[in-house]
Amino acid sequence: MKTPISMLVLLLAFVPWTFAQGSALLSAIEALPPCALQCLTTSIAASPCELTNQTCICLDQTLQGNVEKCVLQSCTVKQGLTTKNTTMTLCDAPVRDKRTQFKVLNITLGTISAVLVALRIVYKLVITMSEIGWDDIFVVTTLIVGIPSTIITDRGTLPNGMGKDIWTLQFSQVTNFIEFFYVLEVLYFTQVALLKLGYLFFYQRIFPGKPVQLALKATIIFDILFGAAFTITAIFQCKPISYYWNSWDGEHTGKCVDINALGWANAAISIALDIWMIAIPLSQLVHLKLAWKKKVGVAMMFSVGTFVTVVSILRLQSLVHFAKSQNPTWDQWEVSLWSTIEINVGLICACMPAIRVVLVRLFPKVLGTTKATSNQYYQRYGSGKAMGHGANASSAGVSNHSRIGNGVITFTKTFDVQHSERRKDIDEVGLVELDDFSAKGKSGRNSIES
């Protein structure tokens, strides 16, 4: 860390002239703790800079390093921060501040995800009057848990210094920041598990095969246990709990689990689970019979799901200094940023199949399918199951044919059924059609032997 601590040496050198030079330097010296002054007095002898050369002293990295090590060993955390703030100010170091860009991204993504989830639910309840599934419930629950995170980020962590260097803040702001960050951490672990449940229950609806259903049920159970374990551990990771946000100053007593290990373990398991959840629908693609427009929709859905995994991996590298940083308000900005992106993009991805159905209804000529259905079972038989999803059907033609021969009477009746509104145009489950249906009823004849 490049810290112009050595500027204090210059102040000491100017002590004989402070009354002639003005009150600024004298005020700075008076604000320094005794431990910092002692460190500077010890380190000045090894400095190659002239006592009056302010530029040399501010840029001398060796002197800065020596003074910084001494201050860390001899001073308290608060004394060290006071020293750092004074020297940075006197050397005219730029004040770093990344709060604005995070504020814009946080509000933008939070608004987009909320609008899409609301559109998904309103479309089902008002337009199609469809049943609300478990996937809808968990997507909405994720949003509900995510709204406090958006608010806390905007009104809690950012105003208390996230995106700024810790030494530019008041001590009370540092405590407030870590306390808000603790709440965000607990909410994040909960959101990750809930969001995955939304995906898993969606897969349950569109992939009816027994093997994949068993795999999905096992994954759901694992995800529930995974989310519960990390959420509870995050809540009680310190004893007392308040030690989480009070330990930074070294003036309180308590004990915490390895917070770094907790963050890494959650991220690693989450990424592995994401990869497994991507593999499940991909393994079913060989069973799908889709028009090319629907293939594009499915490809987009899974591609965005892959992007969520990529975001999780990018977030993983931001955990390198997590919980071990001496400048948490600056270093944990990146962790918070990627966590916000991950959850909101995940919600947007979860709503894509439903939004695709809405767009097909609004722009049928552009996004609708070009043929009635690719499923021969529905085309030939017009089963009650196919017609039972809000579709209006009419018989376009009926033809009867009978034949007698070799003591066997065979009667064949064929119906041509037209659907004015098919399930795939009103429900995201219709995005996928399985070959399992076409295996049924391969024969179009009912035979009576006499």
UniProtKB/TrEMBL annotation:
It comes from the Eukaryota. Belongs to the SAT4 family. Belongs to the RBT5 family. GO terms for cellular component: extracellular region; side of membrane. It is found in: Membrane; Secreted. This is CFEM domain-containing protein. Residues 1-20 form the signal peptide. It is a lipid-anchor; GPI-anchor; Multi-pass membrane protein. It comes from Lophiotrema nucula.
